[in-house]
Design a protein that fits this description.
about 325 residues, alpha/beta, Rossmann fold, 3 domains, seven-stranded mixed beta sheet, five-stranded antiparallel beta sheet, 12 helices, 12 strands, about 35% helix, about 25% strand, globular
Length: about 325
Amino acid sequence: MLARTNSVADASSPMRSPLTGGEASFVRTIPVSRLIDAWLRTYRIDITDELGGLVEVSAYRCNATGLIFFRPVTIAGSPQLYRQLQAATAYYSELKWEHRMALKDLRGARRVLEIGCGSGSFIGAARKAGIDAAGIEVNPEAVTQAQRQGLPVQLRDLASVAQEDAGRFDAVCAFQVLEHVSDPGAFLTDCLRLVKPDGTVIVSVPNSRGFLRYYDEILDLPPHHMSQWSRETFQAIEAHLNVSLVRCLSEPLAANHVDVCVNAYGQWLRSRGALGAILANRYFARVARALLRRGCRRFVRGHTLYSKLVKTCSPR
């Protein structure tokens, strides 16, 4: 009963954006029981302890940037959750689309730090390309894997590194990390502290304007993800942080996401009423999959949004 009272208070009390410090609006609540059941069914992982006895978690929208974020902050995934995910899935994958984009953008950069580097796939590729790249990671198992490959990866957190190594890097990268933290404003501020004036900060996040907007993927919700990002959000933060957005790219739909994309748009059509339900029949799914697998997927927004930010010296 106490948990439900706390949840309702979260929904009705004033909320501040973790990105700007400005006002935020309540969006919806998500039943914790639904999250627990979905994790058990999909990954056979019990997240009950991660959610601390809550009955609901709340989603809010930053009024200035459109960022969607979840509260309370205590529901952010623990190291134990990521260890379980690593054991249950191929959590740290090989070189990704956003890695290839970053390698192009980092040509000429000397010292590069990757935050949340996992077992070091990008670090290895960057070093082969002649970049002096190192990484930090909070998952001990991933750090061990990286160090066994001879990669310069340390078990450290961003806040401590930002204090000790301010201004030492030409670029900082964070791939699929920003959405996990409960204070993205502090995270980005620490990234900017690490780079030199005119230094580069590269981030990739799930694209909330792609197929994910029509599909309640449990990994895009707490306790795994604590925020959801769009191109508009990255454009808006120029007014709140000392950054300039150089480019923001949407990943074309990847081959391994065709099925989930078709299911997502089918789910959206069915939610539009009787006509949508008629259109979203088995023939729709069959034709859509065939078109996407024959090359049309390059015209469809995929999973990831890639942003290159440059540190500016003028105060905002």
